[in-house]
Every structure is written in C-alpha cells, then in structure tokens.
C-alpha cells in the first residue's frame, strides 16, 4: 500500500483515496468477518472505494454532519439518507466517477436514539456495469484549483439500504435487534489524525525543499541587470534581495524536515505506549500536531509562492513545476482540519496548561515553560530587567522564543480573563480573544521548531556539515525574530540596538550562505524526474530545454491551429 | 478600443494584446504614413498583432534584450535576427497561434553602430493561409498558471527581412541611407509605464474587492461549529478570527481603489503638463507608481488567497471564482516591472531625495517629509522624546506612518554609508543595503496609502458613510501598525502600552464593522455576472447552485465515464 496517498506526495490520482483511506480504514476499523468479505476484493481493485466524510455544508466540525444511517431491525438493514442539500457528501477524491464503493460517515440512529458518527460500507455502482445503484446520486463536483486528474465527487443517498454487517464493527457495534454497543475508548481515533498531521508537517518541508531547489538552481542560471555598470549581468542569486527571499525559506525547509522526522518518531513511540494502555502523552502530541500542521502548511504555502515569483516570468510556466507544487500543496491548509481551527485547538491545550500551572500544578513536557516558577524569571519590560539574549548564540535564541511563547500565552489568558470580567460567557470570552490565542499558538509552534532545529545540530558529528547547518539554524531563528520584532520588543526580550544587530547579522549570514546555497539544495537529493522542473534541472541547461518543452505544447501539434479556421477566418471575412 | 486589456480585467483572451498593446502602440509611435498603412487593417482584424518585448533570457532589464534589427541600405530593409537561444521572444499573449503580426522590440544596428531598442512591425504569418512566413519560428509556450485561454508564444527570427518603413518612426528614424535620427526626448516612454502601473494599482483594489465580496457574503451564509454549546451553528462571520482575516482586507480594498483613482487623476494632470513640456513632476510620479504597483499587487495577491482559504474547502472549487481571480491577478507582481525591482526604483528616488535634503535642498511634494527641518523634529528613541501618537486619531496615525517612512529611509541611507566606509563600490554598497531599501520603499508606500485614505474621508459629506469609512480607515491604519509593530517600537513612535491599546482597539473595530460588512461589499456593486461566483451570490443561495454547477461538470456528461471502459474494466479483468 502506498502511504504517500494520505498526503498527496507528487501528482494525485483517482485511486489515492482507495489506497490512502479506504484500505487503511478497513484495516483499522473492520471486524475480522468484514475483513474477509471486503479486503481482498478491495486489494484486487474489484472494489474501488473512497472515504466520504465532508458534506457540502459541513467540514472541520464533524459533529455537524447530517447524513443518517437508521437501523431497521425488521430487515436487519441500515437505511442511508442525505436529508438536506447541505448533507450531500462533497469533495471525496475518486468519488465522482471512479469508485464503486465508499466508506460513508453518518449519524447512527437505532432504537429511536442517535449514537453519533459511525462508518458504513456503501456500494455505489454496479460491479458489472459501473452504473450507479438505485437511490445513489453520484457525480463529479467540477473543476478545481489544481487536482485536474482527480474526480472529487458528490454523493446523495436516497433511502439506500445496506445490510447490518456493512457498518464497520471492530469497535462500536449494532446488534441484530438494534442494540447499540459502545466502543471501548474514544481516544483511539486520535491516533490516525495525529499520524496524518505529522505526515503533513514533513510534507511541508518536502514541498518547500522542492521549491527552493528549483528557485535556487534557477537563480544561479539566470543572469539579469547589472550590479556594476559595464560588467556582465550577474547571476540573480547575487542580489541581496533574492538571497533574502530564498535563503530563509531554505532554512525553513530544513527545519520542517527535521520537525517532521521528530513528530514521526514521537508518534511511533507514543503508539507503543498507547497499545500498552498509556494515553498520558497523547493530549500533548495531539495539540502539538494540530498547531504544527497549521504553522508549517501556512508558511510553506506562502513560501512556495515566494519561490515561484523569485523565478520571474518563467515561474508562471508549468515547465517550472512550481504552479503544480503550489496547487497540490496548498489544500493542506484546509484538509485534515482547517488551519485556524487547528491553531485554536493548540491554544486550548496551552490555556489549559497555563491555568494548571497557575493553580500550582507542575507541568512536564514541552509546555513546562508555563510553570509559575519559570514565568517569574521572565523579563517584564525593557526598563525593569536587562535583556540577556545573545543574538549570535542559538541556545540563547531558543530561550528567547520560549519566553516569547510564555508571554503570549499569558497575554491570551489575560485577555480571556478581562472578557470574563465584562460578564460575558466563557465561550464569548474565548471567541473575543481568538486573535490572541492564535498568536500564542503561533509563538508556541515557532518555539518548538527553533528548539528542534537546534537539537538536531547536536546529532551532527561532521564539522563542515555542522557549521553550515548551524548557519542555517541561526538564519532561521534570526529571520523569525526580525519578522516578529514587535513581539520581542514588546515583551522586553530584545532591545532596540539588539534588533539592529539582528538585521546586520542576517545580512552577513546571507553572504555567508551564498557559496553553499546550491550544494544545500542538491543535498535534498531530488532527482530531475522527481522535480520534473525545467528551471530546476540539475545540469542547469534551462533555456534549451524550455524551448524543447514549449515546442511539445498541445497547441503546437499543427502550425495553423483549428481556431484559425473556426473563428478567426470567418471573423476576418465578415469585416 | 477596450482599455481593460492592458491589465487583464476579467477573463483574458487571445486578442488582449492586439487591443491593449498593438493598436495603442501604433497610435503612439507610428508615423502618419504608417498609421495609414497599418491602422485600419489592424482595426478590422485583418492584421492581428501582439507586442513582443520579453525574451527567454531577458525580462525587466530591457537593455539586456538581444534581438537585432540590422539595416541593409542596399535593399532598404531591416534584417531581423534572434542570435541566441536566450534571445527568443517569450510570453507575448496571442503570439503563439493567433497573431499574424507583431511589434518586435530589437536592438537597431545601422552604419556599424548600435542605437539601442526600437520597435518594428514584423509580419509573422501569411494573410491568406496563416502559415508562418519564411524565417519565422513561432509557437505556443505551453501550459501556465492560469491563462488557459491565451496562446502566449515564442518567436525566433532567422534573417527575416522587413522594409525600412516597418520601423515605428514617429520619434526615432532611420533614413534611406541608414542615417539614424534620434527621438526628441527619451522621457516620453515613461508616460505609458506610469499609466499602466497606476491602472494596476486600481486593479489590485478591484481584485481584492471581488475576493472580499465573495468571502464575506459566503461567511454570512456558512454556518459552522459552535460558539455556545447547544446553540445553533453560528455564521462563520461571527468568529473573531474570520473577521480578523477579512475586514482588514476589506479596508485594504477600499484603500487601493481610492489610491488607484488618485493616481489616475495625477497621471492625467501631469500628462497635461508634459504635453506643455513640463516634466518636473514626472520623476516623483514614476517613482511612486513603481513602488505602489509592487506594494499593492503583493498585498492584494496574498489577500486573495486569504479570502479563498477563508471559504474553507469550497474556496478550492472553481465555482467560487477565487482560484481564477488569483491566477489572473498574481502575474501583476511580475509583469510591467518585477516587484522587487520596482521597490528598488522607488528607493533610488527616496535616497536621491534624502541626499538632496541632507545637502540643504528643500524638497517639495510627497517626499517633503525627508527635509532636514522635519527630520530634526522626529523622535529618536523611547527615552529621548515622549511619543505623541494618538491611536484613535487617523491624522495622528498618518503622522506616525510618515515618521516611520522617514526613519526607514534614513536607516537605508546610513546602511549604504556604512558599506561605503568598508571601501566597497557605490554599486556593491547599494546591493548590500537592498533589504533596507525595499523596507524603506514599503514604508513610504504604506504612508502614501494611509494618507490618501485619510484624505478621501475629507471628500465624503454623508455622515453615515463618513462614519463607516472612517472606521475602515482606522482599521487599515491600526492593522498595519500591528503587522509592523517592530518598526513603530524600534523608531520610538509607539510605546509598549500603546501597542496593547492598538490590539484592543482593533478587536473593537472588528466587532463594530460586523453589522456593516455585507453592506460594505454590496457597495462595490459587482453584479452576479461580473463575480461569476457561486459562493459570492447576492441572494445567498449557495448550496443549491453549487449542486447545480457541479452537475454540469464536464465529467458528468455520461453516468459511466469513458475511463471505466478504457482503464478500470481492463485493469479489473486482469486481476
């Protein structure tokens, strides 16, 4: 099974959901009998399935889903319905034209009671003719931003009856008489979400690394304008502005790759604990994966566009590969949990932790910086305490990021407190502080990334490698400070003269990285076939191959295009 | 003639360049005899032309263009050549398959000397058969990010001979014996650039206004999650985070529309002056239009994507219209002068002005804030001078933006100075300060936008209208301060407690704008046919129409798609 399908590595295709969701869901949630019935036909592509969760009117808020599965004990069947227009299943990949089955998430009703969401195996199309079955209204949802090859679909169910054993029954069950049997633990479904979100973090590093490879290689091939009059046009990589666009993104790509690796390791470690019944680390990992998913996908998406535009006009050509990298990656900001909702989930954990610490509870793990004792050590303002940050020392910068996060979590908690004093409800106080909460989560995630980048350096023995990666890590940390300089000044962590030092140091680091830039993207080791980019070719023969690529354009099949005979000539004749 | 073609309002099409560039260039640069020969056939679409400037290896830096036109007095012809692969003309719209003529920019060589770029009318395809003429290698450059309907093309010229009177000769001339006659003024070509760039600024307002209309209307239709448990799912417009995404962009859209109007007025006023031989205001306008073009297109492009993603999953569907708005607008960041290059052009003017002021020269116009006398009044740091900004008063905020710009121009100038002290050349000192220079230009443009928004309020008599637009203007100014809080703290223009006030005030303004949000986008007055967005429908009947739109998807023409018979069925049969 190809794990890549979960996160759309490379080009996406109609079978992605079958391989990435349908088969794994069977593996995780089907009973042994169900495995026997469905798995081999699905493995052999007789059954081609998709995973139908999102509805036209309902996305990230799963409890709002409206599709119903009502148990009829008389026939021992579930009656599946889409009761409203907003309940029509919308977006599942491969649903429109390819799949003949779907796993459908629906509200289970039995014995007059609703038991919430369950997963059901629903046949959609005839196994012989591929024609939709009675009561199944299914089709393609139309053109999208990218993903041209995937038939994302809609599904309206009108009294579709499926046998009782088509509900996935490894955990929850409905007995023949309609009795509902609860699953042993609700936390089990957390695992998959955490896994997919940590995969997406790695994917953010991957997409950004590919984009940087293309933009940095091309910037070393492209010559333009002049720095010194009369001299040859320099490589555009020699412009400070170009370096300032691309090198921090290069550092970010390395950072996210390291964070992705870390999350994967933690996930597997914790999965071991969970299988032994220890759920203690799950809330922290769940919160971290939500925030980091949002933090990394937002930055990477914007970064891909910066890389694309750093290639000038040719970045708009699909021969650069950058338009495709963007449209394929940017949906990660929305799927598997909309980013702002994710940030607020992380904030919920941070505020909860902050309150526990304020109540005297000693926190452990990544949020231990919220402990009262540590917070008392923080500077309160420029005047009250001298700053101690050394802008040339990565460990000192990690500390500054940590204190910034602590301060912003505190500010968000205080905002909620102030709202509550206006006698609004807890929920309104939360909503009225949402900007601060997102900002706090962002600072928390930023701290985690800088910390993990610094930690990674400790694992590197080779001196040369350690040196260049240290430069990258320092660049990453300092550029984040420059971008969020208001935070660091406001919280008294940096002084105004230090901020000037940061700017100066950043420029030095750019110049320092310049000779290693191409080697640093070569080190990502993307073969030309993987990049599929004329601009990002390893051999640098960009222009010859761009001409060759253009000549193969579909419009060039004939010297005179049919539009001339169909439109232009008649138009000219009429004048 | 449809002026919209210059800036791609709405959908683009193969004849855009003919209408937007070929005909206007004839009008501006053809001699009376040339007008007689070419204009009527072009007007009647017998001649379909494009404008071929950019080459595969050369974009914004025009002097680098390589195409040659060498005059041969023996036959009184120009011999046109593309001497290298990088000299192949690349990107002109309609060049690939549609046009039978092009205006080609080429280096003029005559009597053994190069006289720089001139424009030549070059026939490309037979008027009878549309087959490319001998020596003309022409075709489509292949798929792009958007612009599917336009055949952007390439053009390689191999000893193509055109008569002497095919060089556009309203200004510069080549006489029969090959004598080159200079044009009367080089500044005349400035005008068109300034005009197009100011059009683009208005277009940034337009694209953002459309995007806000869609996102804000849809956010009032879409219900999701819960703020208060047990209550119905609220409109997503009620979430503070959603307001924080969209309302500042709404304010920005209004701001850019006003700035666009202003620039258009100034352009026409100055054009009057120019026709009377007064070029004095042109450098300022030229510098302003370059910077504002970059400033507004960057923000608007990023803003369109924020609007798109604020619509959740459905923002990815082309039925939202947002993907098309993005891919159609984002090229403005690159064409008509690459944005970073534009910012550096503005910086060149700012630094020149700063140096003049430092030398005792009294500046007038928009850069008068750089005068020595004014600069002496500026606060130097938090300690040396109390801050005077009133965060509730727009005039006071305009002042703060002005002082920030002054300070950042000064910092950039000092950076150059410091570099020069290291004994590097002027050019290297400039390049080594480029980050600071772009930052200074950005601050200058931001000041201009805030100032013009505030000035616009003065023109509004209606009290209700004045009140809501004042709220928008305040939101625009305060959000800019929050985003660049580091600058305002660093330059001592704001104190830390004032920054907290800014955050608090911003939240209040969001809540205050909430009831008027839909009215404020309705006021842009885009008819449904112009928006062409299911999500942005005026009547709010989003879901029904989305279903209808999807059912018309090309893939839904048949219940069973041909791919089933072609691929799936054989695949299943083989297993």
TrEMBL record, chains A, B:
According to the UniProt entry, its GO molecular function terms are: acyl-CoA oxidase activity; FAD binding; fatty acid binding
Principal location listed in the UniProt entry: other
Q: Which GO annotations describe the biological process of this protein?
A: fatty acid beta-oxidation using acyl-CoA oxidase; lipid homeostasis; very long-chain fatty acid metabolic process
Q: Which GO terms describe its cellular component?
A: peroxisome
Q: Which cofactor does it need?
A: FAD
Active site per the UniProt annotation:
336
Q: Which UniProt keywords apply?
A: FAD, Fatty acid metabolism, Flavoprotein, Lipid metabolism, Oxidoreductase, Peroxisome
- The residues covered by the Acyl-coenzyme A oxidase N-terminal domain are 10-48
- A Pfam family in this protein? ACOX
Q: Where in the cell is it found?
A: Peroxisome
Quote the pathway field: Lipid metabolism; peroxisomal fatty acid beta-oxidation
The record's InterPro entries line, in alphabetical order, gives: ACOX_C_alpha1, Acyl-CoA_ox_N, Acyl-CoA_Oxase/DH_mid-dom, Acyl-CoA_Oxase/DH_mid-dom_sf, Acyl-CoA_oxidase, Acyl-CoA_oxidase_C, AcylCo_DH-like_C, AcylCoA_DH/ox_N_sf
* Domain Acyl-CoA oxidase C-alpha1 stretches: 190-351
Locate the residues binding FAD. Answer: 54, 93
Which SUPFAM superfamilies does the record cross-reference, listed alphabetically?
Acyl-CoA dehydrogenase C-terminal domain-like (SSF47203), Acyl-CoA dehydrogenase NM domain-like (SSF56645)
| Acyl-CoA oxidase/dehydrogenase middle domain segment(s) | 51-160
Task: State the reactions this protein catalyses.
Answer: (6Z,9Z,12Z,15Z,18Z,21Z)-tetracosahexaenoyl-CoA + O2 = (2E,6Z,9Z,12Z,15Z,18Z,21Z)-tetracosaheptaenoyl-CoA + H2O2; dodecanoyl-CoA + O2 = (2E)-dodecenoyl-CoA + H2O2; octanoyl-CoA + O2 = (2E)-octenoyl-CoA + H2O2; hexanoyl-CoA + O2 = (2E)-hexenoyl-CoA + H2O2
Ranges for domain Acyl-CoA oxidase C-terminal: 393-571
Q: Which family does it belong to?
A: Belongs to the acyl-CoA oxidase family.
Supply the PANTHER family for this chain.
ELECTRON TRANSPORT OXIDOREDUCTASE, PEROXISOMAL ACYL-COENZYME A OXIDASE 1
Q: What is the protein name stated in its UniProt record? A: Acyl-coenzyme A oxidase
Question: Source gene?
Answer: ACOX1
